Amino acid sequence: MSLKIRLSRGGAKKRPFYRIVVADSRSPRDGRYIEKVGTFNPLLPKDSDDRIKLDTDRVKHWLSNGALPTDRVLRFLDAEGLMKREPRNNPEKAKPGKKRLEREEAKRAAEEEKAAAAAAEKEAAEQAAAEAESADADAATEEQADEEATDEVAAEEAKEASE
C-alpha cells in the first residue's frame, strides 16, 4: 500500500482549514485516512505558532514506514527540519531573453547619445554666451576709449579757447 502524508480540507466556504493526514494514496482528498498527524490553518499570520501544528514523532514514524509527503507538506517538514526540500524553480528562467537585452542596450545607447548631444548643445550655448560677454566687454572698453578720446579733445579745445 502506497502511503501519502497530505492535506485534507475542512472548514467552511472561503474559510479553509486543513488536517495533515497519513492516507492511502488511492483514497480521496477529504476521504478516509489512517491517522491525523497535524493541522494547518492558512488564515493565521505566517509567524503565528498555531498556523502549523505537527506531531513530529508520528511524522517520523510514518516517514520511516515509507509514507511520501506531498509538496506542500514537504515544505512544512522542511521548516520543522524533518526533511530537506530542494528548490524547484529554475532561476535561469527568470532572466530576460537575448532580444530584450539587445533592446535595453540599444535604449541605453540612445539615451547616452541624447545626453551627450544635450551636453554638447549646452556647452555650445555657454561658449556663445561667453563670446557675447567678451564682445560686450570689448565694446565697453571701446566706448570707454572713445569717451576718453572725446574728453581729451574737449580738454584741448577748452585749453585753446582759454588762450
TrEMBL record:
<keyword id="KW-0687">Ribonucleoprotein</keyword>
<dbReference type="InterPro" id="IPR020592">
    <property type="entry name" value="Ribosomal_bS16_CS"/>
</dbReference>
<feature type="region of interest" description="Disordered">
    <location>
        <begin position="80"/>
        <end position="163"/>
    </location>
</feature>
<dbReference type="InterPro" id="IPR000307">
    <property type="entry name" value="Ribosomal_bS16"/>
</dbReference>
<dbReference type="InterPro" id="IPR023803">
    <property type="entry name" value="Ribosomal_bS16_dom_sf"/>
</dbReference>
<dbReference type="GO" id="GO:0015935">
    <property type="term" value="C:small ribosomal subunit"/>
</dbReference>
<dbReference type="GO" id="GO:0005737">
    <property type="term" value="C:cytoplasm"/>
</dbReference>
<feature type="compositionally biased region" description="Basic and acidic residues">
    <location>
        <begin position="80"/>
        <end position="125"/>
    </location>
</feature>
<comment type="similarity">
    <text>Belongs to the bacterial ribosomal protein bS16 family.</text>
</comment>
<dbReference type="Pfam" id="PF00886">
    <property type="entry name" value="Ribosomal_S16"/>
</dbReference>
<keyword id="KW-0689">Ribosomal protein</keyword>
<feature type="compositionally biased region" description="Acidic residues">
    <location>
        <begin position="133"/>
        <end position="155"/>
    </location>
</feature>
<dbReference type="GO" id="GO:0006412">
    <property type="term" value="P:translation"/>
</dbReference>
<protein>
    <recommendedName>
        <fullName>Small ribosomal subunit protein bS16</fullName>
    </recommendedName>
</protein>
<dbReference type="GO" id="GO:0003735">
    <property type="term" value="F:structural constituent of ribosome"/>
</dbReference>
